[in-house]
Amino acid sequence: MAEQPPPGGIDPRSGFCAATRTFHSLRPSSTLPPDSLPATATAYAFSTLRSPLPDRPALVDAATGIAVSYPSFLAAVRSLAGGLWSALGVRPGDIALVVAPSRLDVPVLDLALMSVGAAVSPANPASTAEEFAHMVALARPVVAFAAPEVAAKLPRGLRCVVIGSDEYKRLSSAGGASPPPPVAVKQSDTAAVLYSSGTTGRVKAVAVSHRNLIALICTHRANREKVEKEAAEAGEEPPPPTVTLLPLPLFHVFGFMMLLRSVAMGETAILMERFDFGAALRAVERYRVTLLPAAPPVLVAMIKSEEARRRDLSSLLVIGIGGAPLGREVAERFAAIFPDIELVQGYGLTESSGSVAATVGPEESKAYGSVGKLSSHMEAKIVDPTTGEALGPGQRGELWVRGPVIMKGYVGDDEATAATMDSEGWLKTGDLCYFNEDGFLYIVDRLKELIKYKGYQVPPAELEHILNSHSDIMDAAVIPYPDEDVGQLPMAFIVRKPGSNLTEQQVMDYVAKQVAPYKKVRRVAFVSAIPKSPAGKILRRELVQQAVSMGASKL
């Protein structure tokens, strides 16, 4: 795909247009199907598969080794779609809650629902009954599909089909005799209702359209073509077919998006029910995994793990980092230990279908600390949170983004939608960011999570990167601790390396040597684990509550 020169007025280096104060993607434009063409995300994903179908597995269960071929996978999706239509009466516009760990049934169910025009609404099986009640009140699903161990937690009035039950098996086989009729589903119709992580409040139900997911597939295809083209120009072999290990839950946008990507590309996805570091390393070795999507703590664990050095990880070509900012120091230390593994950094939100920016290819991946360049068809602004002024390269402000992957809105919450999206389609991300002169995006921190110390703004992520570089620290989180005199104090929660006797004073001294005085850590607590969302985001609210209840004496 040929590089397109930027339109007049757009800086070809940064993508910034001074006249409109807007940053533009400099990626080759991927070809999107016309808006008016009826299409579901499932139909589009399957249409991109080359004929004959790939002769590699579509899905593999990491624990059992059970594999599902592409012909079997497509047949299972179509058969279940027929059962959903004829036996259960699922219709376009219906919403179906799916609550299960990452088992082989889940991708079949998700794609079958979308194929008949229904919206799949995947939820965390670890949620409480109260949390499920909140999700159901927002999304108003007509039916739920739940793993046996979860079904009892769902609201009683909601029709529930237990995955793996006789009823479910009948649905799965019913479509063979009566496939669903062709349905004209608009790309603008809702394909999925995904729940935001809720790190700063109650979860919101994000409506993602078929168009959003189709644009996502197109972006990934364009990125792959760019890598293949660069390899050909360098006289190198193209990368082998991707085998992706998915330790990410499929109910989270990162896992949901990576699975859809894998299917649309004709690749192999290895599913893990839950993340376990040792099991993930063994799966990489056993299945010759080439791509591992992960949050930054996985890199920290690999750096400090003896087992990671013992295992044969030679197949692993790329680790795709998402979910939280990756510090330069961690990236550089990782590259020194694992020089043959490329770190691809990316940035997205549930509200952007998981995609805004990414590094593409080995050269861009060396821009440690950046989450890459704007994806195809995307625009961005950096907006001063106080004045509302749109800023230029090198200036920090709130990131606003616009493009074909941006959500329709929040289901059941018009007020939140209006507060997050403006009338021109700009999504306000809530992230403090900047672009450099070369168009690379840098995430500083969540605006709501900045610590206000004596009027200064302290980004917790910056201090966490420093703490995680300490050889005796396995994991760290920094939160604002309320203080009458200064407003908020930076407080660190530390997971010590086994056998370490690291003290509070040593932690504070280590940070103090590397930061301005107002950024110093002024409280420390040692814990056994840092609470995190399924995507690896630190649940700071839980730590703030814990810190306040601890009532530690002022340091």
Distance between the terminal alpha carbons, to the nearest Å?
Answer: 59 Å
Helix content: 25-40%
Query: How many whole angstroms does the radius of gyration measure?
Result: 23 Å
CATH topology of the largest domain: Rossmann fold
How would you describe the overall organization of this protein?
- It is an enzyme of class 6 (ligase).
- This is 4-coumarate--CoA ligase.
- Its EC number is 6.2.1.12.
- There is one protein chain.
- This protein is an alpha/beta fold and 555 residues long.
- It folds into 3 domains: 16-28 and 275-446, Rossmann fold (3-Layer(aba) Sandwich); 68-209, Rossmann fold (3-Layer(aba) Sandwich); 451-550, ANL, C-terminal domain (GMP Synthetase, Chain A, domain 3, 2-Layer Sandwich).
- Strands 1, 2, 18, 19, 20, 22 and 23 form a 7-stranded antiparallel β-sheet that branches.
- Helix 2 packs across helix 3 and helix 6 packs across helix 7 (253-264).
- The termini are far apart.
- The model has no long low-confidence stretch (mean pLDDT 91).
